[in-house]
Design a protein that fits this description.
Elements (H helix, E strand, L loop, with lengths): L1 H14 L3 H10 L4 H6 L5 E2 L3 E3 L3 E6 L10 E5 L2 H9 L17 E7 L9 E9 L4 E10 L13 E7 L5 E10 L3
Parallel strand pairs: 7-9
Antiparallel strand pairs: 1-2, 2-6, 3-8, 4-5, 5-8, 6-7
Length: about 180
């Protein structure tokens, strides 16, 4: 876990400024340095590194997908997407949101069951590297003094990203909501 967080921090540092051009040229040779310099803001560094645009497909609190612990699932085709969607007890009567699987895949991130309201989960950023698609997720829990519903919740966030055969890695961070 610590290694993933350190690597994620390194990726963010590399992709956040002029260091990005240097890192790309060192890692992949001078052939990408011009392209990397043009994207020194970290938005895109050649086909290997960069921010990946994502769109929210669904985000919920009370869908009850049945995952007890934090996890994620990737749907790379319509069949897998419909099977995943039908797992949600409170969304089964709704059609699965449309996704063009010739161009996109769905990454669904779940926090697992939580004992009360006040918990949240949000995909904040997606970064592509040569080795994986890294999905950065922020989980929020209620702090001392927060008024919360007394109901079981199941925070989840499902996003679509451009099609890729790369493995998906989820990097989670945690924040406690200050309610005082």
């Amino acid at each position: 876990m610590e290694r993933n967080v350190l690597f994620a921090g390194f990726l963010l540092a590399v992709l956040s400024g002029s260091v990005a051009a240097w890192a790309a040229s060192v890692s992949f040779g001078a052939s990408v340095s011009a392209e990397a310099s043009a994207a020194a803001d970290g938005s895109r560094i050649g086909p290997w590194f960069g921010n990946v645009p994502f769109e929210t497909v669904h985000r919920g609190q009370y869908d009850y997908f049945g995952f007890q612990e934090p996890t994620h699932r990737v749907a790379r085709n319509a069949t897998a997407w419909k099977e995943l969607w039908m797992m949600g007890q409170n969304v089964q009567d709704q059609p699965a949101p449309d996704v063009d699987f010739s161009k996109r895949i769905v990454v669904a991130v779940f926090s697992g069951f939580k004992p009360t309201g006040g918990y949240d989960l949000e995909v904040r950023r997606v970064i592509r590297t040569p080795w994986a698609m890294h999905v950065f997720v922020e989980e929020t829990s209620p702090g001392k003094g927060c008024f919360v519903t007394q109901a079981l919740t199941d925070p989840n966030h499902m996003v679509s990203v451009p099609t890729s055969g790369l493995p998906v890695k989820v990097i989670r961070s945690h924040r406690v909501q200050d309610c005082n």
